[in-house]
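Take a sample.
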Amino acid sequence: MEISAISQKINYQINQANNILLVTHQRPDADGLGSLVAFSFWLNSINKKHLKFCLDQPPNNLSWMVNFQPLVSDRSILAKEDFDLVVILDSSDLNYAGVDWLFSVLPKKPTVINIDHHATNHNFGDINLADQYAVSTTQIIYQIFKSLKIKITPPIANALLAGIIYDTYNFTNPNTNHQSLEIASSLLLLGASLTQVSDAILKNKTVAALQIWGKILLRLNYNPKYGIVSTVITPQDVALGVNENEVTDGVANFLNNLTGIKAALILEQQPDGKIKGSFRTNDDLIDVSKLAKILGGGGHKKAAGFKLTGQLVMRANGSWQIV
């Protein structure tokens, strides 16, 4: 993908805008949050008025990225603003970003910039920079900054590195390539702290979370015909004070490292009557984003998710079914 020309278009819209909304997806991870933070640093450096929005607050282990300050999560605040530019980061569609309703209530439709690396991105923006071959959205932001010769300070470098480390699972999943390693190396030279970033992302397991993992792993089911392992997370599993991402994503990534397994599926019952599904695979012949898309979701070739309406019910034999 030729990033230079698109970067110039993005830069033009930034320079023309008076009030900018930055958005990342609900339940923000290190890639979405890192993209948001890096973009905000850029806008601050050129004195551009902007607001950072996310439906959910960052998990505790990533709150340092936003200097321990809350993001705007109240939708009513957005409706009172007159945005002329909206930049949506690391979200494959407007619903996942939590702003599908916004454009019907604003006085006039703003220009929308869509920057993402999901293979299932809907290209919903007026300007779309969706590169499925990038390991993270922060990698794309890095390439934009380099193209536009934007100074990458140590805090920006930390934010960009966080996205790369998170989405490559510390350079261990199949998405990792020479380019991601080269960019990570460049970010270290620019002042990023590998210790701070990797510790925040990888050393975030608590005793309470691991106790919950034990309950979830007891429900592990293996289908030898298809080489798939699956398990279920119930609302009772996620105790007060335990971060949901730490449980769901942690178990998913753990199962993805099992020997001889082609794919892993985690089904999580949510309080709103929805079932969240998370796919993981390390198999080069499997694209779980296509499976997720069939079920109304999306994501990456090796990590994807979806949501269904229904309830997880345990059968008499101990197995689970969706009703």
